[in-house]
């Protein structure tokens, strides 16, 4: 009887049906959460909805990207709550699949590894339970809401070094670090004394831009700001969980990155100082290839600051490591200028003759020239040193005069001084217009990203405000980031077809000037919806997104933006050609899952 009721065809159909039910479950098309999406208007949202609260139709469902993007009428789906810290290109579950192919001896697993589209979530990343609008700068330097970064590991393992302490509903940052547990101010003063023979501070040595490797919670950067020193801080997403999230929540410029197998996403000769305080980098390993990356990034007469056990400890293998460092830096023609307490400082001397002599002795290799107008993006590390003669070196003025510097690379790119000046003037006018359109107090904005920064004019126009700007130059465009660094600003290369290496909810303002149309044409094209989804991931609740682009694109975005739970208003402003163009002002609603 059973055999007649369940013949092979019937069994096959049942199995197929079960298969589609399971698939539908995982993509959220059949079973989805019954949670409510609640929108608030203040700094917090109640944990339970009440009569009169705004509720939206966006479903809570785990949705993966499909070949063609279709946004439901109910709005973009919302990821389940456990994905509130989702970073697509640093996703542990995806990384597990890649591990057998990665060189873990060189920490390749800590680099950015972006999934294929079909392996990426296509849903809005929710805030954590009890998320609050971040504390404003400058108070945020010292205090952030505990519930916004609800991780205690760093406080437990680094509390004795004064990285971070728990204080009621807050995290408190006393300003300490592994090698400056008594405070970054004292440490920074010591570095100034070491580089000036006790006669001045870091400003007097010409330090304007610093790269802080393995920055922890970025207190070093925070306490360089009174000296008007701009710092690009980075650290990997590793056992020191959420250190970059802490830094950004504090309002300090930082990103997820690591020195492993690829060049860092910064132009050559961008920093007067590279800093490593117990940064967990084996500088002596692999023929010093990581030190050679530091050399690429340092300007002539720049400093490498190293605070770590090999400098001062004589036990274990530290003496051997120190001798290797001495041999490597000597071969690279760096000069050890100071060694005090737990810190050593080298000066990168501008001596091509020394490098050529050492190359003849087979102590190092000289790099073949590369085209400097092309961004260094996802390029393998080079085990060689670049000669100064390969560059048209430009002596830069002090910080106060650097914002107006016309970089020599602009001439190579066909940008005249007149075009550059007009661009600077244009952005000063546009920023003034933006504030009128947004209509908020500028102290409400701290973390800003210019997603297509060009020459950095937008950032310069904000330079008189208590704001820092991450200037992004798309890797598919020309290298104008060198010009941005020559102006004393910071930023990185990035390809917006991939998510950015940062935590969710880290920026107060995103600026996208003719970015989306760039990715709709040319060799590197990608979906507008994917870029909008990434914007939503990295913008804070109640944060602003300014989009300027071609008319048809702006109108298209205006139509779909509300499905991302954004408020939208359309305006018209003059572009650089004095023609009117549409400007979309979007504001992310403050919503939560209840």
TrEMBL record:
Which residues lie in coiled coils? none
Instruction: Tell where it localizes.
Output: Endomembrane system; Membrane
Residues crossing the lipid bilayer are 12-31
Q: What organism, scientifically named, is this protein from? A: Dendrobium thyrsiflorum (Pinecone-like raceme dendrobium)
Methyltransferase found in the keyword field: yes
What this protein is called in its record is: Methyltransferase
Q: Mind listing the GO biological process terms from this record?
A: methylation
InterPro entries referenced in this protein's UniProt entry, alphabetically: Put_SAM_MeTrfase, SAM-dependent_MTases_sf
Enzymatic class: transferase
Which GO molecular function annotations are given, in alphabetical order? methyltransferase activity
Q: Which domain of life is it from?
A: Eukaryota
One Pfam family name is: Methyltransf_29
Q: What is the similarity comment for this entry?
A: Belongs to the methyltransferase superfamily.
Q: Provide the membrane topology annotation.
A: Single-pass type II membrane protein
Main location, first listed in the record: membrane
GO CC terms of this entry: endomembrane system; membrane
Under Enzyme Commission nomenclature, its number is 2.1.1.-
Supply the alphabetized keyword list: Glycoprotein, Membrane, Methyltransferase, Signal-anchor, Transferase, Transmembrane, Transmembrane helix
């Amino acid at each position: 009887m059973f055999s007649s009721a369940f013949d092979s065809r019937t069994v096959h159909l049942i199995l197929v049906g079960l298969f589609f039910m399971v698939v539908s479950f995982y993509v959220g098309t059949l079973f989805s959460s019954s949670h409510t999406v609640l929108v608030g208007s203040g700094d917090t949202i109640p944990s339970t909805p009440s009569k009169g609260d705004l509720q939206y139709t966006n479903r809570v469902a785990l949705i993966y990207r499909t070949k063609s993007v279709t946004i439901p009428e109910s709005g973009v789906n919302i990821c389940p709550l456990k994905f509130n810290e989702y970073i697509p290109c640093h996703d542990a579950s995806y990384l597990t699949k890649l591990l057998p192919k990665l060189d873990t001896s060189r920490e390749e697993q800590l680099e950015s590894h972006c999934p294929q589209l079909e392996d990426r979530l296509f849903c809005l990343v929710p805030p954590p339970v009890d998320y609050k609008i971040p504390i404003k700068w400058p108070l945020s330097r010292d205090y952030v809401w505990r519930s916004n970064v609800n991780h205690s590991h760093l406080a437990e393992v680094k509390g004795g070094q004064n990285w971070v302490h728990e204080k009621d509903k807050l995290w408190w940052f006393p300003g300490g670090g592994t090698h400056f547990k008594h405070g970054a101010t004292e440490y920074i003063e010591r570095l100034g004394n070491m580089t000036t023979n006790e006669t001045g501070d870091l400003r007097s040595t010409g330090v304007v831009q610093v790269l802080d490797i393995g920055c922890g919670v970025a207190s070093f950067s925070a306490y360089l700001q009174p000296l008007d020193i701009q710092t690009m801080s980075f650290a990997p997403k590793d056992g020191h969980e959420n250190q970059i999230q802490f830094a950004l929540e504090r309002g300090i410029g930082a990103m997820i990155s690591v020195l492993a197998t690829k060049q860092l996403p910064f132009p050559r000769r961008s920093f007067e100082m590279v800093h490593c305080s117990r940064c967990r980098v084996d500088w002596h390993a692999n023929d010093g290839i990581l030190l050679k990356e530091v050399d690429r990034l340092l300007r002539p007469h720049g400093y490498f600051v190293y605070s770590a056990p090999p400098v001062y400890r004589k036990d274990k293998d530290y003496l051997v490591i120190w001798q290797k460092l001495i041999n490597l830096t000597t071969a690279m023609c760096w000069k050890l200028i100071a060694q005090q307490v737990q810190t050593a400082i080298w000066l990168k001397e501008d001596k091509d003759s020394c490098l050529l002599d050492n190359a003849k002795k087979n102590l190092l290799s000289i790099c073949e020239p590369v085209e400097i107008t092309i961004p260094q993006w996802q390029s393998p590390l080079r085990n060689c040193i670049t000669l100064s003669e390969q560059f048209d070196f430009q002596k830069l003025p002090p910080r106060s005069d650097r914002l107006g510097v016309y970089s020599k690379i602009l001439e190579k790119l066909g940008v005249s001084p007149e075009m550059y000046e007009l661009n600077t003037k244009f952005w000063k006018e546009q920023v003034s217009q933006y504030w009128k359109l947004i209509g908020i107090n500028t102290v409400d904005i701290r973390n800003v990203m210019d997603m297509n920064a060009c020459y950095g004019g937008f950032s310069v126009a904000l330079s008189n405000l208590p704001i820092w700007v991450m200037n992004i130059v798309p890797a598919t465009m020309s290298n104008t980031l060198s010009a941005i660094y020559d102006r004393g600003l910071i930023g990185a290369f990035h390809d917006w077809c991939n998510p950015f290496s940062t935590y969710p909810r880290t920026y107060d303002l995103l600026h996208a000037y003719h970015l989306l149309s760039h990715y709709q044409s040319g060799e590197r094209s990608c979906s507008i919806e994917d870029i909008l989804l990434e914007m939503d991931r990295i913008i804070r609740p109640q944060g602003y997104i300014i989009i300027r682009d071609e008319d048809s694109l702006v109108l298209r975005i205006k139509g779909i933006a509300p499905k991302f739970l954004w408020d939208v208003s359309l305006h018209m402003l003059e572009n650089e050609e004095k023609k009117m163009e549409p400007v979309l002002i979007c504001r992310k609603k403050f919503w939560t899952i209840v």
